[in-house]
Amino acid sequence: GSQQPAASVSAALRHTPPAPAMAFSGGVKLGDLDDFISASQECVKPLIQAAGGGSGSAKLDGTADGLRASAVAAAPVVEVPQVQRPNLIKSKKSATDPKAEIGQVTLSDCLACSGCVTSAETVLLQAQSVEEFLKRVSEAAVTVVSISAEARASVAHSAGTDPLPTFQRLATGLRRLGATYVLETSASDALALVEGKAELVRRFRAEQARLPMLTSHCPGWTCYAEKVVDPVVLPHLAPLRPPQQIQGRLVKTVLLEEHNRRRLHRWWRSRSPLFAGECGWWSRAFWPRDDSPAPLGPGDIYHVAVQPCFDRKIEAARPTFEIAEEVREVDTVLTSTELLELVLRSSGAAPAEAGQPSAAETAARNAEALVELAECPPCPLESEALTDILLQDLRAGRPFGAPLLCAVRGNAESGGFAEHIFREAARELFQREVPAPLQFTTKQNEDMREVSLTDSSGRPLLKFLSAYGFRNIQNVIRRITKTGAGGPIRECGHFVEIMACPGGCLNGGGQPVIAEAAGEGGEAGGARRDRRRRLGDMEALLHSAPGVAFL
Asked: What is the SS3 assignment for 328?
């Protein structure tokens, strides 16, 4: 569900949608490129160092050994300051040709290259798919599935139920497949908002700070910005970890520690004479002398994130988001549609047919999954499978005992960054209480909105924008690069919540296709009204449904 950007986005990743159709945002698509490297095609960045230690451009050559990178020495004519490029493409010597190097290209390499190294299709399908989940869940010591609020709300809306029973039924299906814990993500969402507010306040108070601050939690927009956007814009991006990766870090540190503590406690309890009656303590003579459980490490946890868009798969593949070498914070990202496919597979259904299905076929498959989901018994709230980062009961210590939490009372369709940061910054910087939810003013279109805080004379103290879709992103970029009195702050304000998908995360390309939206064509105005109504209904499920409390 995201618009295509202007033709200038020819330097991002091209993707041909597999089944179900992978609707990546335009920020990670490429046009006019093949899905393979031709023999004469050159990478545009000097990523592989020349053999003599100097730098040169890297030419990729398809041979029987694989992709070869031969250093093309640059003839030094005039000494010019060179921008230091990272050596992103891993290389090794060729066994058949000592003068050549074999370049090993991965998705992580593609993320940092503005040229066409290769298509990321194969990597994504192998490492970020339903089949990969089914394979690894059977091998992992512990499998943790984190379901984002946007994905949960979308599935609940498609099923015609509330988020809490939907969450419980999804947990039942995932448990059938071997998942150990199923988590909601309110802790990581809240941490991202707190850090976002702190960063804006810091910039606002600093001299010569880069304002407006642009959000960086949308991977489609971030990837596009890093590859295509004018470098003057990049310092405006917030240097913050996205909520998905915060969740991944918490799972592989905090949750891991709690899981090890639980295992050790249960081992001790089974061998303690205090619990002899329930643990068969009489059989202690047959126990090994040292059978205490070895603590698990981050690599022993298989962490899966369920998200509303396919771009999150690319985010998880970034090399900076690793706990240790080859240990990612998030191992696999599945979309809401792929989660429904797992529900079908948990009931014994056959895999979907190979090939690219039509929208109607995808909608029919989703409808089957929703029927199966409705028949799943809800997982009890007291079950160990439904838990939080601390492995506690979801109702413990929460407002009104609500198992699900939302950090904002409105405008939560993309994490609530503009809503939360505006109100908290107004309180901290100007001692002003702003009622929730914020009342945004629509500007050029419904995906470009503005809200301001003014003093008694009408002078703006704070000005925030939300810009969704690449049409509006281009508009924001032009404003920031525009020179003149007032500069970017006058044009864009102090903060811009940017999302690649029109309508925000709730309208992500990985959300379930519903029957009435599966057809093509139709009157444009009616389609916009339907989208507005559907997104409004889903947003209400985020913060106002039964079982959900405001944090």
From this structure: strand
The Cα–Cα gap between 336 and 416 comes to 20
Fill in the amino acid letter for 170.
Answer: L
Rg of the Cα trace of the chain?
25
Query: Has residue 12 got a pLDDT over 60?
Result: no
CA separation (Å) from 390 to 148, 164, 276, 415?
Answer: 17, 20, 28, 22
Q: What is the dihedral of CA 271, 277, 280, 285, to 10 degrees?
A: 60
470-to-4, 119, 222, 511 alpha-carbon distances in Å: 7, 22, 12, 19
**pLDDT tens readout for residues 416-460:** 999 999 999 999 999 999 998 999 999 988 999 999 999 988 898
Query: Is the Cα torsion angle 112, 116, 118, 124 positive or negative in sign?
Result: positive
SS3 42: strand
- For the four alpha carbons of 252, 254, 255 and 261, in that order, the dihedral sign comes to positive
Q: How far apart are CA 35 and CA 13, in angstroms?
A: 10
Pairing, β 441-442 against β 404-406: unpaired
> CB–CB of 94/65 below 8 Å?
yes
Question: Is 154 in contact with 538 (CB distance < 8 Å)?
Answer: yes
* Dist. CA 5–CA 26, nearest whole Å: 6
Residue pair 110/120 in contact by the 8 Å Cβ criterion: yes
Which letter does DSSP use for residue 138 in this model? T
pTM of the predicted structure, to 2 decimals: 0.77
Give the integer Cα–Cα distance in Å for 394 and 54: 57
C-alpha distance from residue 24 to each of 64, 75, 403 (Å): 32, 41, 32
How does the average pLDDT of the chain come out, rounded? 77
Give the range among 62-76, 126-140, 154-168 with minimum mean pLDDT: 62-76
- Nearest residue to 224 via CA among 450, 233, 331: 233
CA-based torsion, 203, 208, 212, 213: positive or negative: negative
* Beta partners for residue 306, in sequence order: 147, 334
Cα-Cα-Cα-Cα dihedral sign, residues 131, 137, 139, 144:
positive
- SS3 of 70, please? strand
pLDDT in tens, 472-490: 998 899 888 876 556 788 8
